[in-house]
């Protein structure tokens, strides 16, 4: 592999004697992996049904090495959102941010969703995930992945971080910054990135990273956690960016992200080969030793950098947070510019514009739906996450779960709803075996024939126990309603 000369020189001076071992990794192939969607299936159950060979990734309990030749993206289970295809090191950042169900979580550079899909899964439907990417086209891919994963409580945005600060001051419990970077850690996997490196260089990205991390810092609640990651080696973009934050915002501290050895053992995890940060590379403070570096010659994965940060609560804030009056304020949304309804959407309460057909369909779904959270926007019905601030003026790609669209006297349930359902949450099910030829025909949006008599209505087509999409049946005519934009090609 022809690495840029300047890059080689920099790596030699950083790594010294280790440089040769590092260089050897370019003679080996990169690793491929998949991460199981725990919203839909446990890793153990997935191992039982998975048709291709898997080997566990030691540091991620729902991550596996795969053989790319087996094409895991060409399987109906992929279309059912059972897993995300992801490079093994790239699974680490989301796995080390301590997300709990109920948290308010921001993924500020989220597209195409490799980390957001895991963060959303770990919320288990409680709390809210705000997934943002400045690039509108990439944010569309992000939205698709959020929907395919069946995440119901996400807000998908495409905004500059500086704009988000006005809407979400000290709002989030957890923030992930998977920063745009020079991508040095991905040269082996995607050699085309080298051109980008030569064109933009480290400085360009470092400037962006410093901007993004400061904005993100302002959106984190005191007491919250923020994780910064890159897929590059350059100290400027890594320890350098963290050192910059620590100077600008002294309330932040780097914390140990890896569990103790005994905890690792209990959780069947191993972080062997993970290395600490290098303060000496940026003339930085000792705290930076707690940063984490993943080197491709030390682990079976590509290069990454990860830092978990904690935002301290100072004594005044702590007293204030404990005052019931403050808690009420937060609950009522006063401090965070909450409004009783999201702007530019109309609630059912104000405008009973949800049709009877839509309500009838919604009542046939067996997961809890708070009617106060139902809104209609341009004939589409959404289920909103609770407790969002006023979003007027933001570029919103999706707010909550799109349930479906009202069309004259009909209601058409959405693809996103199908993917968010469990087989037990809807009555009219058509279950097919994984190798049933009808499945591929269905996913290609072709017509399918089924044996037997069916009552008219909307049926949820499943591969085994996992929903794929809708099929409409009337007078024993089958109308394939799989979303054309998602079809198998
Ligand atoms: C490393 S990628 C994110 C990958 C993503 N986290 C994943 O796991 O799939 C960095 C992302 O940052 C976005 N980006 C670039 N500049 C940005 C900015 N100023 N604010 C927010 N996002 C930005 C890019 O569009 C890109 O999608």
UniProtKB/TrEMBL annotation:
InterPro entries: Methyltr_RsmF_N, MeTrfase_RsmB-F_NOP2_cat, MeTrfase_RsmB-F_NOP2_dom, Nol1_Nop2_Fmu_2, RCMT, RsmB/NOL1/NOP2-like_CS, RsmF_methylt_CI, SAM-dependent_MTases_sf. The keyword Transport does not apply. One of its GO terms (biological process) is RNA methylation. S-adenosyl-L-methionine binds at residues 109-115, 133, 178. GO terms for molecular function: RNA binding; RNA methyltransferase activity. Belongs to the class I-like SAM-binding methyltransferase superfamily. RsmB/NOP family. This is RsmF rRNA methyltransferase first C-terminal domain-containing protein.
């Amino acid at each position: 592999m022809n690495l840029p000369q300047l890059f080689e020189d920099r790596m030699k001076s950083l790594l010294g004697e280790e440089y040769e071992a590092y260089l050897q990794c370019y003679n080996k192939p990169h690793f491929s992996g998949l991460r199981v969607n725990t919203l839909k299936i446990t890793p153990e159950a997935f191992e039982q049904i998975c048709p291709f060979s898997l080997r566990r990734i030691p540091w991620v309990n729902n991550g596996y090495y795969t053989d790319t030749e087996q094409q895991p993206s060409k399987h109906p289970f992929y279309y059912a959102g059972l897993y995300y295809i992801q490079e093994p090191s790239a699974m680490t950042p989301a796995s080390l941010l301590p997300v709990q169900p109920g948290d308010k979580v921001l993924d500020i550079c989220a597209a195409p969703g490799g980390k957001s899909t895991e963060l959303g899964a770990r919320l288990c439907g409680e709390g809210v995930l705000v997934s943002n990417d400045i690039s509108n086209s990439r944010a569309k891919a992000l939205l698709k992945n959020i929907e395919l994963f069946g995440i119901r409580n996400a807000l998908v945005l495409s905004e500059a971080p500086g704009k988000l600060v006005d809407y979400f001051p000290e709002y989030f419990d957890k923030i992930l910054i998977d920063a745009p970077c020079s991508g040095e850690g991905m040269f082996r996997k995607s050699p085309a990135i080298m051109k980008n490196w030569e064109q933009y260089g480290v400085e360009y990205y470092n400037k962006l990273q410093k901007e993004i991390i400061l904005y993100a810092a302002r959106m984190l609640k005191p007491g919250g956690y923020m994780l910064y990651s890159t897929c590059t080696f350059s100290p400027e973009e890594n320890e350098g960016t963290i050192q910059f934050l620590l100077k600008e915002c002294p309330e932040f501290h780097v914390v140990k992200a890896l569990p103790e050895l005994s905890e690792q053992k209990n959780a069947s995890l191993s972080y062997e080969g993970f290395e600490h940060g290098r303060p000496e590379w940026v003339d930085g403070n000792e705290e930076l030793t707690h940063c984490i570096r993943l080197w491709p010659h030390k682990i079976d994965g590509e290069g990454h950098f990860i830092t978990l940060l904690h935002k301290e609560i100072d004594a005044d804030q702590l007293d204030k947070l404990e005052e019931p009056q403050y808690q009420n304020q937060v609950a009522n949304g006063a401090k965070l510019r909450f409004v009783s309804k999201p702007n530019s959407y109309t609630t059912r309460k104000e405008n009973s514009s949800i049709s009877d057909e839509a309500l009838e369909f919604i009542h046939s779904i067996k997961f809890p739906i708070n009617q106060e959270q139902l809104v209609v926007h341009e004939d589409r019905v959404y289920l909103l996450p609770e407790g969002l601030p006023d979003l007027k003026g933001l570029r919103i790609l999706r707010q909550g779960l799109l349930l479906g669209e009202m069309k004259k006297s009909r209601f058409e349930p959405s693809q996103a709803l199908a993917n968010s359902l469990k087989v037990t949450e809807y009555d009219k099910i058509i279950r097919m075996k994984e190798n049933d030829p009808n499945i591929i025909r269905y996913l290609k949006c072709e017509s399918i024939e089924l044996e037997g008599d069916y009552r008219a209505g909307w049926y949820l087509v499943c591969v085994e126990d996992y929903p794929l999409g809708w099929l409409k049946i009337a007078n024993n005519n089958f109308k394939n309603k799989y979303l054309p934009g998602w079809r198998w090609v």
